[in-house]
Design goal:
heterodimer, B: alpha/beta, Rossmann fold, 6-stranded mixed beta sheet, 4-stranded antiparallel beta sheet, globular
Chain lengths: 404, 225
């Protein structure tokens, strides 16, 4: 029998008993719909993470002062071991380093303009900060080497700060006070949105490192160094080099813990994916169970159907169907049920996912993956569920089957 | 074209009791013959039909069909013979209840190795039995006689050389029986081999040769009509 005819005949068989067909599909639809929602959610979470890592930068590593610290997480007791000179040394001595931005950061510092107040994260850093953080000034100018040398009281402020302090006015050239120290706004930072750890990147104020350390904070250490690499593929080796250099510079003996923490984009990804992996594993188990149950339902209804259709099977054999033709017919029927159920399930899943995003914060990504997964899973379930009923149908004695 | 030699068929009931349904049947049927096989119910008619139709294998004896020893063929080869050489007509019509007349007639073609336009051929076959205007009717929407005509169209669709009819009028009223017998008469005139199993004497009288069976044996074999 030609495959095309066999498929057509199986579909006709299913079409002739729509209730039975629908019942068989139900379990598969539920299973695949669950699976689709899970996959969409995983993809959504993944794209969230990738977006965050993208903001962090694939070609960057961050060095935080203190052991076991994560960049972007506020520190209660500041580590004092990281110095501005460490940044210069990294740039000078480590290969594959394109730029460094040593900085002293302070959160929630009071800022004041002539008319209003706000809080801002104040970053004292060097002119290379703009390039390393990929955040140039879009209005006015960024801080310069001269500003650094002259301990200039100039500031480049983020869009949120502009909005809070000046509303819709042009801030460039205006005066602000940081912790009571007067500064002139030199430029406005390019908008960056929310950081991996949920901070408003546009709420930052950048001032020269020297000015910050001597005039505002009166400190001689920095909180972090962001390093931009030339070749991100050599990240691991470069991280090792930085580590050796810093340990040497900080006079750390073998066996003593690092007094700094190096964070790479991969680590950011890992932290963010761990949570979603645990949740999705649980959901995958649920969807696997419903697929198995769905498969058992299909198998059993197929078995009952073989019993009910004995006479039809006998007739087909009398009219010239070979055993293999009967086997194929029933196998195709079961696969058609599960594949179609799979397709419906994917569509329900995508629809359900969309509805879920309205009520929850889950990110859902509509993509091709659920279709492929549904095709593979429902195809496999169809074969597994159909094989035993199909073999039973094929092995029926035609004379016995006709007589029933 | 059909040669039966000492055909026996034994069933085992409940694993113990032996039921000898056929006890040495020998028959020769030539191409184009119209044969009626008469026997009381339960006397091996259907078993003989199933063996002739290559649906069942005899316990003993030999069956040659067009010179081929059927016992030596495997299951797939027997399926092909049923598909190409034999057209079955059953007492209970045996139509797929949820399929249209057209789909029912197409059924044997699905299993045929030959290709062609299924529904066109099936349509012609239904026209030939006078049901050209009922092709999309379900069996339940047709009368008994019409259903049997659909079944005959189905039996003829692959142009078989032998038509095996098992009590074809058994479930029909007199008028419908006449219609069916008229079709058989035409088929006989087209030089097809017709083998009709019945227990109704007046139906059997329409054939050209009458074979009487009793207790699994042929007791009489004569030309009639």
């Amino acid at each position: 029998m030609k495959t095309e005819r066999a498929i057509k005949e199986s579909l006709r068989g299913l079409g002739r008993n729509k209730t039975r067909t629908f019942l068989m599909m139900l379990g598969i639809i539920i299973g695949i719909a669950t699976l689709t929602i899970i996959v969409s959610a995983i993809l959504g979470a993944k794209s969230n993470v990738m977006e965050k890592v993208g903001k962090f930068g694939f070609d960057q590593v961050a060095i935080a002062a203190g052991a076991g610290k994560l960049v972007g997480v506020p520190q209660d007791v500041p580590a004092v071991t990281l110095k501005p000179e460490d940044g210069e040394a990294i740039l000078a001595e480590v290969k594959n380093v394109k730029g460094v931005a040593p900085s002293f950061q302070a959160r929630s510092l009071p800022l004041k303009s002539a008319t209003s107040n706000t809080d801002s994260t104040v970053v004292s850093s060097t002119p290379s900060w703009a390039d390393v953080w990929d955040t140039p000034a879009v209005e006015g100018e960024f801080i310069t080497d001269e500003d650094l040398a002259s301990l200039a009281r100039v500031a480049v402020i983020g869009k949120t700060v502009v909005k809070e302090l000046f509303g819709s006015e042009d801030p460039v050239g205006k005066q602000i006070y940081i912790r009571g120290v007067p500064f002139v706004v030199k430029g406005v930072l390019q908008a960056k949105g929310i950081s991996p750890s949920g901070l408003d990147m546009d709420g930052r104020t950048v001032i020269p490192l020297t000015t910050g350390l001597k005039r505002v904070f009166n400190k001689d250490y920095i909180t972090q160094i962001k390093v931009k690499l030339r070749d991100p593929a050599k990240m691991a080796a470069t991280v090792q080099d930085i580590k050796h250099l810093l340990r040497e510079r900080h006079n750390l003996q073998a066996g003593v813990e690092d007094d700094f923490t190096i964070t790479t984009p991969t680590q950011v990804t890992e932290v963010a994916t761990q949570v979603s992996t645990a949740l999705s594993l649980f959901l995958i188990v649920i969807s696997a169970i419903s697929l198995i149950v769905g498969g058992i339902v299909v198998g059993n209804i197929m078995l009952i159907s073989v019993g009910e259709r004995k006479q039809e099977i006998g007739l087909r054999r009398a009219l010239g169907a070979r055993k293999s033709d009967i086997l194929t017919q029933f196998l195709f029927e079961s696969m058609a049920v599960t594949l179609f159920g799979g397709l419906v399930g994917v569509l329900f899943g995508l629809g359900g996912g969309k509805i879920l995003t309205l009520f929850t914060k889950l990110a859902m990504v509509v993509s091709w993956e659920p279709f492929v997964l549904a095709f593979v899973f429902s195809g496999v379930v169809g074969i597994l569920a159909g094989i035993s009923p199909a073999r039973r149908a094929a092995s029926l004695d035609p004379v016995e089957a006709l007589r029933s | 074209m059909i040669e039966l030699r000492d055909i026996t068929k034994t069933y085992h009931k409940n694993g113990e009791m032996e039921v000898r349904v056929l006890q040495g049947v020998s028959l020769d049927i030539q191409k184009g013959e119209f044969v009626a096989i008469m026997a009381p119910s339960g006397m091996g008619k259907t078993t003989l039909m199933n063996i002739l139709g290559c649906l069942d294998r005899p316990t003993g004896g030999t069956y040659r069909l067009d010179g081929v020893e059927v016992e030596k063929l495997d299951d797939d080869q027997l399926s092909l013979i049923r598909n190409e050489k034999i057209g079955f007509v059953f007492q209970t019509f045996n139509l797929l209840p949820r399929a249209s007349a057209l789909e029912n007639v197409e059924l044997p073609m699905i299993y045929s190795p030959r290709s062609g336009d299924l529904s066109k051929k099936a349509m012609e076959a239904l026209k030939a039995v006078g049901l050209g205007d009922r092709i999309h009717y379900k069996p339940s929407e047709l009368s008994g006689g019409q259903q049997q005509r659909v079944a005959i169209a189905r039996a003829l669709i692959n142009n078989p050389s032998i038509i095996l009819a098992d009590e074809p009028t058994g479930n029909l009223d007199t008028a419908s029986s006449e219609e069916i017998m008229a079709i058989f008469k035409n088929l006989h005139q087209e030089d097809r081999t017709l083998i009709l199993v019945t227990h109704e004497a007046d139906i059997a009288q329409r054939a050209k040769r009458l074979i009487q069976m009793k207790d699994g044996k042929v007791v009489q074999d004569k030309k009639i009509g």
